[in-house]
Amino acid sequence: MKHQLNRIAFVLTGWLFAATAFGQGQSVSLNKIIAKVDNYYVLRSDLEEAMQSYVGQNQTPPSRCQLLESLVINKMMLAKADIDSVVVEEKMVDGELDTRMQYMISQFGSEKNIVEAYGKSLEMLKSELRQQVKDQKVVQKMQAKITSDVKVTPRDVRKFFDTIPKDSLPYMPADVEIGQIVRFAKPTKEQKEALRQRLLDIKKRVQNGEDFAKLAKEFSEDVGSAEKGGDLGFAKRGMMVAPFEGAALKLKPNEMSDVVESDFGLHLIQLLETRGAEYHARHILLRPDYNRLDLTTQTHFLDSLRKEIQVDSISFEKAAKEFSEDKTTADAGGLLRDAQSGSSRLAMDPSMDYALFSMLDTMKVGSISAPLPYRTEDGKSAMRLLYFKSKVAPHTADFRTDFEKLQTIVLQNKKNRAIDEWFRKSIADVYITVDPEFQSCRIFGTTQNSAARLGGGE
């Protein structure tokens, strides 16, 4: 079981370590291929980097075989994502890439220093890192898909805690509470009008006989539906954002809407059919180029708000509820919550959001950051204030104090088992080869029969 947990832990955090190594200027040399999963490769340098990542985090690394297995698992998820057509939006990749580049700039002091340190242009460095970021997002999406049905009850948590000998209770890492106030960049009237005109031109093309689905595949920036010709499937009333749903429900089957604006961008909607309280629609979504939006107004607003909070004219919590444009955190006074447990207490370790983890090193408890560039997962540009509300020091686990953490551990254990089961079922869908040097590693604990697909090195 310990081997299993270590293996999955690396699957979940290994990409972050790799990105951190990139940011610290560690070079990656192209060298011998030691494993292959369909068209994805594991290099010897990948294995060495993984080992050094643990050392750099002051952690004892797993064995080389465990690390190799973790790297193969990552590649297997990417290969299966290709087979299952699992994709991530390019704007999500751009947002994470921008975050990492901003972190690099903060570490090196300027873009010029980065260029001098690497001997490459900033665009070339971004190009090299981009595929790594995209692969990470795909792996995360595959993990979420595999474990979407996993649940945990309080009884599961109590049962787990009672099985731990009192003298073997885990030492819980530090956790923190963090708040944020977000202000999004706003597209100009000119930018909106340009998008509106593009959608109206597309609408005319459909009215003149062109296929809506084909045009959606070509132009829509909603990657998830674009590959299906913009098809969103059946939706119950209340599932979609109000502007979209309101426009869709006014249509007759096969009728197209005027251009509709929502928080996601601008839509051209076509209703396909209704069925009781459900409706079936497809759309073409266009969004502004968030890289070109001006954030000066948002920066000034947050800077002024920060000063008011610091002189106690308003509390951070009240300011977040009144002024933050991030709906997922505003109602909770800006507090960020763990996606799995829902807790406001976040483990302060490399599994934390990349930008937050890097920022906390420069902040004290009770402090509020200056306005910081922020990119949402769906690619929107924004500025935000971060509030380091509290921190709990590492301590021996206690059932009541650490219930949410224990719940997360139990949930992760269940997810690990779900992922293991997925591996056993999916291994036949990909072709894996491992260099003879590592044949003794017995990737996935393969037996004589199941190892038939694990060929020798190339």
TrEMBL record:
Highest taxon of source: Bacteria
Domain PpiC residue range list: 173-273, 276-387
A Pfam family per the record: Rotamase
GO MF annotations, alphabetized: peptidyl-prolyl cis-trans isomerase activity
Keyword Signal recorded: yes
Organism of provenance: Spirosoma oryzae
InterPro entries: OMP_Chaperone_SurA, PPIase_dom_sf, PPIase_PpiC, PPIase_PpiC_CS, Trigger_fact/SurA_dom_sf
Matches recorded under PANTHER family: CHAPERONE SURA
Signal peptide (residue range): 1-23
Protein name as annotated: Periplasmic chaperone for outer membrane proteins SurA
Keyword flag Isomerase: yes
Keyword vocabulary terms for this entry: Isomerase, Rotamase, Signal
